[in-house]
Write a structure and sequence with these properties.
Aspartate Aminotransferase, domain 2; 464 residues; 2 domains; single chain; Aspartate Aminotransferase, domain 1; 35% helix; five-stranded mixed β-sheet; alpha/beta
């Protein structure tokens, strides 16, 4: 185990400037001193000392297709030389064709006509979806969302995010959420199968509509006070919790009975993270709205958006000027998005991701057998979780995971003579879950390398 790492003189000058000139409101310093990075490629980033780190979180799943992906980078470069800028009130080919691609795909998969509306990122697109939902429900501002759910930190998005700390100092802005338990089977009641627990959670939710005295339903007018249910099909910041396959189908039945829209937040799990374009596809339901962002442009350009059913977003009900962003549907972003769709259509990308995910999960299961502090592992595609617990394999152990993250960032582990660091992300209700989101282009030898590095961190954590 190495000593505490000291920043180089050059890095320290930059860190001193950051301390004086940069807002800390948009920065999280997980380790001290923070690393300053200088280049990236594939599954790796390098710091200013040219120390390589294998990245298993890929910018919170924004860089699904690997750092500096040559094909996507070239699409951006080519667009810069043709139409790099155009105001969002004007049309360009990329916007129209990317909208068509998403809408035609949704029609094929869900049997629903719909339209695509762009914005500059995930939180901003959540805000637009709230406008669409409120407009379609005659101004209802109450929403359902999940415990453990995360939808962003703008004012509206933080109101439907379960963490009070994101809105504590700012109050509520229109929307309010009723937070419903998510079927987190590892920490659910004992004695139920995963599917039984999923049904149990739906049944508990359905109780809200039994009488008017449950507080959400008026049986005399058949109206619900809530407009929509915002779901992350696979919980992201909540710890990559994977629900039972029967859960959303049963939940959607209750929502449809009571006229409540389902909004699928695919910002983290979209674009093949789970082996399908949208993670909701795994669960055999038709969403009313899909929100996307992050990996659409592989992190090269801030672009997000929504797809919504025709009845919710056609120009008669959601007319021009309903919302606006200067950089929405910008041609650099749409060019990369189009190339991403072309790239993933040329091979069976979903099958490739599922095969790699199965291989990675088997490696995590092997580690779980050998290290009792791993309480749970699970995964869908290359969205994988590893829950770090106490010696009993259940009590959450945030301190040990924090230690592992810091050790990984020291860059002093050695595998086959190569010195490496390991970048991990922390999630979960108790901040004790390693949320693994490697590049979808990761190679099998790189998966093996990641597992070896994780094993070294686990050895350090259990022998310190």
């Amino acid at each position: 185990m190495s000593d505490i790492r000291i920043a180089t003189a050059e890095d320290q000058i930059l860190l001193d400037k950051e301390a004086k000139y940069c807002s800390y409101g948009d920065t999280v310093h997980y380790i001290e001193p923070p690393r300053i990075f200088s280049r990236c490629e594939g599954s790796y980033v390098w710091d200013t000392e040219d120390q390589a780190y294998l990245d298993l979180q890929m910018w919170y799943s924004a860089v699904n297709f690997g750092y500096a992906n040559p094909r996507l980078n070239n699409a951006l470069k080519q667009q810069i030389d043709t139409l790099p800028q155009i105001a969002s009130q004007y049309l360009h080919k990329g916007k129209i064709e990317l909208s068509e691609m998403i809408a035609v795909d949704a029609k094929k998969k869900f049997g629903l006509d719909g339209r695509v509306h762009f914005n500059v990122g995930g939180s901003q697109s959540i805000e637009d979806s709230l406008k669409v939902v409120r407009n379609a429900s005659n101004g209802k501002s109450l929403m359902f969302a999940f415990e453990g759910g995360y939808h962003g930190r703008t004012l509206g998005a933080s109101s439907i995010t379960s963490s009070f700390r994101y809105r504590r100092r700012y109050g509520h802005f229109g929307e309010r959420a009723n937070f419903i338990p998510f079927p987190y089977h590892f920490r659910g009641p004992k004695g139920m199968t995963k599917e039984e627990y999923g049904s149990h959670c739906v049944q508990q939710f359905a109780r809200l509509f039994e009488t008017e005295y449950n507080g959400v339903w008026d049986p005399k007018t058949n109206q619900c006070e809530y407009a929509a249910f915002y779901v992350e099909p696979i919980q992201g910041t909540g710890g990559y919790v994977i629900p039972p396959m029967n859960f959303y189908r049963e939940l959607k039945h209750v929502l449809d009975q009571h006229g409540i829209l389902m909004v699928s937040d695919e910002i983290q799990m979209g674009f093949y993270r789970t082996g399908k374009l949208w993670s909701i596809e795994h669960f055999d339901v038709q969403p009313d709205v899909i929100v996307f962002g992050k990996a659409l442009t592989n992190g090269l350009n801030p672009l997000g958006g929504i797809w919504a059913r025709e009845e919710l977003i056609n120009p008669k009900i959601f007319p021009p000027g309903s919302t606006h962003s200067t950089f929405a549907s910008n041609p650099l972003g749409t060019a990369v998005g189009l190339e991403m769709f072309k790239m993933t259509s040329e091979v069976d990308y979903g099958a490739m991701v599922m095969a790699k995910g199965k291989y990675f999960l088997e490696g995590l299961q092997d580690l779980q057998k050998r290290f009792p502090i791993i309480g749970d592992v699970d995964g869908l595609g290359l969205a994988l979780r590893c829950e770090i617990c106490g010696p009993d394999g259940f009590a959450p152990d945030k301190a040990t995971l924090d230690y592992m993250v810091e050790e990984g960032m020291k860059g002093d582990m050695v595998v086959d003579g190569q010195k490496l660091g390991l970048i991990l992300d922390v999630g979960g209700y108790y901040k004790n879950v390693i949320t693994l989101a490697p590049s979808l282009e990761i190679s099998y030898p790189e998966i093996d390398l990641g597992l070896k590095l994780l094993e070294q961190l686990l050895v350090r954590a259990t022998t310190r």
